[in-house]
Amino acid sequence: MAIEPIGPQSVTKTQEGYPWTLGLEKEEKTFSETLKDSILKVNDVQMQADQSIVDLTTGKNTDLHQTMIAIEKAEVTFQLMMQVRNKLMSAYEEVSRMQV
User: Fold this and answer.
1) Domain ranges of the chain
2) What is the C-alpha separation between 75 and 54, in angstroms, rounded?
3) Model pTM?
4) What is the pLDDT of residues 13-29, one digit of tens each?
5) DSSP string spanning the chain?
């Protein structure tokens, strides 16, 4: 009985049956679209935190803990966005210093 060697075709055959690969179509997004979506999500979190503060001050929501959680979540997401921005700027500066 001959044993077949493992090749690229046999690897793709085994991956076809996994649940995370079934019925999924590849959605290609550009980097700028991904960045824009991320910024919009950060904005949404900021708006939710603002609304939570308004609800707390007007008496619609009396749960201080949920308000504080929303504020902290907004702060952490904003800090993450700023770190990504800083990394992008430093990468841009590094590329601009390269001599061709």
Assistant:
1) 30-97
2) 17
3) 0.66
4) 555 556 555 555 667 88
5) -PPPPP-HHHHHHHHTTSGGGTTPPP----HHHHHHHHHHHHHHHHHHHHHHHHHHHHTS---HHHHHHHHHHHHHHHHHHHHHHHHHHHHHHHHHH---
